[in-house]
């Protein structure tokens, strides 16, 4: 006997990838982990932020950041073009809104690599977002990595380490914590959290 269908068609499960936010203190290894992960999985779309910071050697406009002037950043903010923005250690950084929404709409896995203040703003505006905290194996190792990178002056390193104390204390606000002992392991764990593998 043919089955008689009664009732309404069930909604398909929501399989859209969620927005993932990766935060953690400066120097913990966020960019290193993300670059490693995207080598194998370029389908993970990483938002390119706007910043008023000056480029480091090798950093390219439109690839690592959109390097903008203070006036340009003022306009991006005033025009509501940023999903979130924050001042961090003397410079401003923000996530261009339109590109993120477009990629999410297409169903692509989207990753933001942003500071704690930005993560908190995303939590407010997009409560579905998954917030991942990248923690250092120890405070001493964080200092070693930030100093060893050799990209910041001692004064800027001090400012970033001061921010790091606040950021480390905020770790319980995040959905997940990954400890960056091994770049390969963390990249794998992050991919799994993003449902990419
Ligand atoms: N697991 C690891 N073990 C040892 N060194 C690491 C590890 N991960 C990253 N590093 C090194 O630590 C330094 C800082 O890494 P990276 O620039 O990726 O940090 P970040 O969190 O993106 O910093 P920022 O927030 O300032 O941009 C780099 O020199 C990098 O090679
Ligand atoms: N709130 C935001 N923070 C951002 C964004 N892009 C990067 N960042 C964070 O800033 C610090 C410093 O970065 P650096 O490249 O100067 O070392 C770091 O924590 C980044 O994750 C952003 O769009 N919004």
TrEMBL record:
EC supergroup of this enzyme: transferase
Domain of life of the source: Bacteria
Keywords: ATP-binding, Cytoplasm, Kinase, Nucleotide-binding, Transferase
InterPro entries: GK/Ca_channel_bsu (IPR008145), Guanylate_kin-like_dom (IPR008144), Guanylate_kinase (IPR017665), Guanylate_kinase_CS (IPR020590), P-loop_NTPase (IPR027417)
Cellular location(s): Cytoplasm
Keyword Kinase among UniProt keywords: yes
Pfam families with a match to the protein in the record: Guanylate_kin (PF00625)
Domain Guanylate kinase-like span(s) in chain numbering: 17-195
Annotated stretches, region: Disordered: 1-27
EC number, as in UniProt: 2.7.4.8
GO cellular component, one term: cytosol
Reaction equations catalysed: GMP + ATP = GDP + ADP
GO MF entry, a single one: GMP kinase activity
Chain sites annotated for binding ATP: 24-31
PANTHER family: GUANYLATE KINASE, GUANYLATE KINASE-RELATED
Protein family according to the UniProt entry: Belongs to the guanylate kinase family.
Listed HAMAP family: Guanylate_kinase
Function: Essential for recycling GMP and indirectly, cGMP.
Name of this chain's protein: Guanylate kinase
Gene that this sequence comes from: gmk
